[in-house]
Amino acid sequence: MTAGDFLMLDDPTVLLLDDVSNLKSFRTYMAGGFEELSNRAIAINKDLLEAYGGFLEPLNSGRGVTFCDDAGDAFVECDGLIKNSEVVLLNEAKMHFHEEDVENLRNVTARKLNCIKAYPHMFTSDPEDVIEQLKGLKIVLVASSSSFSKKAEEDCAKAGIHRLCQDGSGFVCTLASLK
Fold first, then answer.
1. Do 145 and 91 contact (CB within 8 A), yes or no?
2. Contact between residue 87 and residue 138 where contact means Cβ atoms under 8 Å apart
3. Which of 58, 77, 80, 130 has the maximum number of C-beta atoms within 10 A of its C-beta?
4. 172, exposed or middle or buried, with CB in 10 Å at 0-12, 13-18, 19+?
5. Is 159 within 8 Å of 142 (Cβ atoms)?
6. How much is the mean pLDDT over the chain?
7. Radius of gyration of the chain from Cα atoms?
8. CB-side exposure of 144: number of CA atoms within 13 Å?
9. pLDDT digits (tens, 9 = 90+) for 61-85
10. What predicted TM-score, i.e. pTM, was given to this entire model?
11. Helices then strands (H, E): number in the chain?
12. Are strands 123-126 and 65-69 parallel, antiparallel or unpaired?
């Protein structure tokens, strides 16, 4: 080899694709972990327990629940469902919550879950028994995040959505006015 020559062992495009794939896998892993962590935090949060009768149980061991239509196509995925005998807390977990996430929780996820409750024969769930467990329960919305934009905080308050936020020592809940 002469001065100025270099030896390329790997195609840089392949290396870059591997790096992007690894970053996506890490993001998926972190998001799934945050969902489970926030669902479990909701179930033991003293403010939520006091507001909803002293007992809350995460469905599916705190993991997300997927609902499919009668054709088997995914209809909606809920990041978390935590229930007692009167309510089911629908948790939407994001690393950072923006105003569009609040709108999505209210106008997409919650509406679809209400549709499932109204027409349970038209849907299936994974795990299988979740639809049956939702019968007769009122849906309450919870937004969980490490941080909220100012507008998302305001929108949650206006919409009656509880906020659960990591503060470095755990999770802090800001209850919306209970209706």
1. no
2. yes
3. 80
4. middle
5. no
6. 87
7. 20
8. 27
9. 999 999 999 999 999 999 999 999 9
10. 0.81
11. 6, 9
12. antiparallel
Distance of CA 57 to the CA centre of its chain: 16
DSSP string of 73-128, one letter each residue:
-EEEEESEEEE-SSEEEEEEEEEEE-HHHHHHIIIIIHHHHHHHHH-GGGEEEEST
Alpha-carbon distance values, 128 to 23, 40, 65, 132, 158 (Å) = 32, 21, 10, 9, 34
CA neighbor of 95 nearest in space, from 30, 51, 151, 168 = 30
Residue 53 backbone class (left: φ over 0; alpha: ψ -120 to 50; beta: rest): left
Distance between CA 111 and CA 122 in Å, rounded?
15
The two three-digit tokens of residue 75, written as one number: 């209809």
Q: Which residue, chain included where needed, has tokens 């669902």? A: 39
The DSSP code for 177 is: P
